UniProtKB/TrEMBL annotation:
It comes from the Bacteria. InterPro entries: Amidohydro_3, Metal-dep_hydrolase_composite, Metal_Hydrolase, Metallo-hydrolase_Enzymes. Keywords: Hydrolase, Metal-binding. This is Cytosine deaminase. One of its GO terms (molecular function) is isoguanine deaminase activity. GO terms for biological process: cytosine catabolic process. Residues 199-398 form the Amidohydrolase domain.
Length: 424
């Protein structure tokens, strides 16, 4: 095995005898040997450079994390979830937002989270931003600042977030939609059963159509089988002929619905061309949590059944150290490991790695990750030589190359946030 300490910190060099997922090469099968030449900021097929025998070590493109909440992140020390429940999370975050979410508070926590993601090997992120007034006028300009500051390191997108019953499509949320459009964002809502759901959705779609915006929903984040707003979203896309990308996250209740009912919804989702993103770590934390009772299900949606229908399925981090998820570090390697275990991605199709790379890129419009000559030299290099070695350890010693140079992977110290955690 190659001594990681002796790997060059910048190119040109050629990584011989590396291992990569075959699907990233456009091939069938699981893993394949491959040689990657780092030639400045890009990959090439040059061979007239120093060769390094990788001993079968796995090389991946840098990750895409398409569903996060950077504005909520790292508030747990000052406002933890009192009971680990979904309602506990909603109420605690709401109270923290009203008391603490100044521009400086949001900016500091978001930047901290981005530094973590960058060190772990993520190159693109979509974050949801709580956007009920007046928070929308505070957080969106902060996002714009950070997007400019992080350009060239992490490509950033943002989607607005509000409960569907709190969003006035003719009033405040129309103003929010203008803010979203001004900042090149995505329009979003949390959907759940409310009176006039379909009319509210039509109003949201009209806001998006008028401003040329994509849509991104949180839907059915519950273990109640009677909740099925995903179906209504798909029906509204088809009814209105909406042509821009639509993404829906969570969709947990599908997993506890009668199979025939769930499959009818999935057929509509496929017909409507929706993108689905599953958030396995957060949903394992929140779903089916009852005091003194062992949870009976895993909380995630029907990812295998979706993939079988050609639905574009991705996985992402979701929340980080906030009342919706007490843990996490925006580490997509951790998401890959945990999703594999929770959703039984092993002993399945060999191309699930695309759900962390190509699929989220397609859903969000990010540049597709690639190992082909001419692609950016943005790589995650591990010691693991196969999937079981990759998933057995957290790969804490991974090397991350950005534009062909090894980055400093030192994580920021939580103590940096201590001054924000001192609340009255």
């Amino acid at each position: 095995m190659t001594d990681f300490k002796k790997l060059p910190t910048s190119g040109p060099f050629r990584l011989e005898n590396a291992t990569v997922p075959s699907c990233l090469l456009g091939q069938e099968g699981g893993l394949a040997p491959y040689a990657v030449t780092v030639d400045g900021a890009v990959l090439s097929d040059r061979t007239d450079v120093p060769h390094i025998d990788m001993g079968g070590a796995m090389v991946l493109p840098c990750f895409i994390d398409m569903h996060t909440h950077l504005d909520k992140g790292h508030i747990w020390p000052r406002n933890p979830n009192p009971d680990g429940s979904f309602m506990g999370a909603l109420e605690t975050v709401g109270a923290d937002r009203e008391a603490n979410w100044s521009a400086d508070d949001v900016r500091t926590r978001m930047d901290f989270a981005l530094r973590c993601a960058y060190a772990h090997g993520t190159r693109a992120i979509r974050t949801h931003i709580d956007s009920i007034a007046p928070q929308d006028a505070i957080s969106w300009p902060v996002f714009a600042e950070l997007r400019a500051q992080w350009a060239g390191r992490i490509d950033l997108q943002a989607s607005s977030l509000a409960g569907i019953d709190r969003a006035d499509m003719q009033g405040d949320y129309a103003r929010t939609a203008d803010i979203v459009a001004e900042h090149g964002g995505v329009l979003g809502l949390v959907t759940y059963p409310v009176e006039g759901l379909r009319d509210r959705l039509r109003g949201l779609f009209r806001l998006a159509i008028d401003r040329g915006l994509e849509l991104d929903f949180h839907a059915d984040e519950t273990g109640d089988p009677s909740v099925g707003t995903l179906r209504t979203i798909a029906e509204t896309v088809l009814e209105m002929g909406f042509e821009r990308p639509v993404t829906v996250g969570h969709c947990c209740s599908l997993a506890v619905q009668p199979e025939g009912e769930a499959f009818e919804t999935l057929d509509l989702v496929a017909k409507a061309g929706l993108n689905i993103v599953s958030l396995p770590m957060c949903n394992m934390y929140l779903q089916d949590r009852t005091p003194a009772r062992t949870p009976r299900w895993r909380g995630i949606t029907l990812v295998h059944e979706m993939k079988a229908r050609g639905i574009n399925v991705s996985f992402a981090s979701d929340n980080t150290r906030d009342p919706f998820y007490a843990y996490g570090d925006l580490d997509m390697m951790e998401v890959l490991r945990e999703a594999t275990r929770i959703a039984h991605l092993d002993h399945s199709d060999p191309d699930w790695i695309n759900a962390f790379l190509a699929n989220p890129a397609r859903a969000c419009g990010f540049d597709a990750p690639s190992l082909a000559p001419g692609a950016p030299a943005d790589l995650v290099i591990t010691r693991a030589r196969n999937w079981t070695e990759l998933f057995a350890r957290p790969q804490s010693d991974r090397i991350v190359l950005r534009a062909g140079r090894a980055i400093d992977r030192t994580l920021p110290d939580y103590a940096e946030l201590d001054h924000l955690m001192r609340t009255p």
